[in-house]
Structures are given as structure tokens and as C-alpha cells.
Specification:
Oligomer: single chain
Enzyme class: hydrolase
Domain Lon proteolytic: 154-235
EC number: 3.4.21.-
Keywords: Hydrolase, Protease
Shape: globular
Strand order of the largest sheet: 6-1-5-8-11-12
Helix content: 25-40%
Number of helices: 8
CATH architecture of the domain at 37-72 and 114-255: 2-Layer Sandwich
GO molecular function, one term: peptidase activity
Distance between the termini: 70 Å
Structural class: alpha/beta
Amino acid sequence: MLSRLTRPQALVVCAVPFVALLVTAAVAPLPFSVAQPGMTANVLGENQGTPVITISGADARDTTGQLRMTTIEATNPDADVRLGDVIDGWFRSDQAIMPHDSVYPSGQNTKEIEQHNTEQMQESQDAATEAALRYLGRSDDGVKVTLKLADVGGPSAGLLFSLGIVDKLNGDGSGGDLTGGRTIAGTGTIEPDGTVGAVGGVALKTQAARRDGATVFLVPKDECAEARSDLPTGLRLIPVTTLKSTVGALVALESGKGDVPSC
């Protein structure tokens, strides 16, 4: 014979598993990473005392202005991110909660991830050099470019590397600097044919760029909406799709002639 629970008793019985679920969620690690604005580096200058771009086999220009590549910093791949961290990050503009697998390749330990990021950086540097020399109509047999950027992995500095090489070898093509003396920041992968690709985390990278003095930010066109979502005051967005169109936009910005695209 079954007995009937009173309403208060039924509420208690139902509440027990719900409370247990909340407790479990609060203490259990979740499959997320917490990201925030990271360091930036001027590819036309030095990083940790070493020139980022070194050119031999051709005369390199003295440049003014800056081209700053941007990064995000994420929690370590093996760090535990809990419910409180996720809730806190959702309400902060200087943090983003990202699926762990979108930041780090799944199924890899910290050492393997570091190796993967190092390999991606090397591939990005090779592609950036090829794209820049192709754009300038130069041969990599006659011009040697060495790129060094410590403690940074992944492919997202590719566009800025290419722009730095172009500025050091050719400037704006008329004797001036590609930057026009400005501090210009940005992000984007680069293919050997000059195609610019999306990278992720651009809303945080714009914050890092403005923090470090940039007034212009080059963003892959497909990520314009994300970049606009929390754009720092005083930072102008220029959408980019190829190395050639990016150089054209910067020349137009410097000269005041021609159209400068906007998001």
C-alpha cells in the first residue's frame, strides 16, 4: 500500500536531487577556458631584446610607427574551470568563456599542445614571408627573412608579420611608412597567396591593442561583428581579406586618398 506525500514533503524530495546537482556543478571542472587580453608586440621593433624581423640580401628601411600583433591569454590546458569562474566571466567585458576544445586541441597534454602551437607559429612565419615576398615581386632566393617572437604560439600573427616585412622592404611604395607613423594593431592568419583568415578572440584582442596605444585595428572581415561587440573607445576597425587589400587600405589611410573600408 502506497502512502501519499504532503505537498511540503514532495517539495523536499524534489529539491534534494536539484541541490545535489547544483553542488556537483559548483565543484566539478567544466569543459571551458577563461580568456583575457594578452600581450602585444611591435613586429617592426624588438621582442625581449631581439629584432622581430631581420632581413638580409636586401636593404631594410628604417620605419616609424608600430605594427602590433595581438594575443589572448587563456587558462592553462589542465586548469580546472568551475561554475563560479564561468558565471564571473560571463559578466565581465575583459574576459571570455570559451569551449576548451576551441582554445586547445582535444586529447592532448600540455607539452603536446605547446609543440602544436610552436609548429603553427613556424608555419605561419613561413607563409607570412612567402606572402610578403610574392606581393613585392621578390624571390626568397635573394632575400632572407628571419622572424623571432618569443613565448607566442599559433598562426594568428601571420598578417602582421607580412605587413612588417612589406613595410621594412617597401614602406607605402612612395618613400613613406606603411603605418603613416601610427600605432596599428591587428590579427589574422595568412596564406602564401596572401589570403587572410579568421582567428577568434578578436573582442579581447581589440582591448589589448587599445591598452597598448593602437588607434587602428585590422580585423579579418568575417569577424567584424565580434570586434564591434565591445570595441574600445578610440579604436578604428578596418576589415581585411587579403594582404594586397590591407596594404591598399593602409596607404589610403595614410594619404587620405581612396576608400578605407570599415566594419
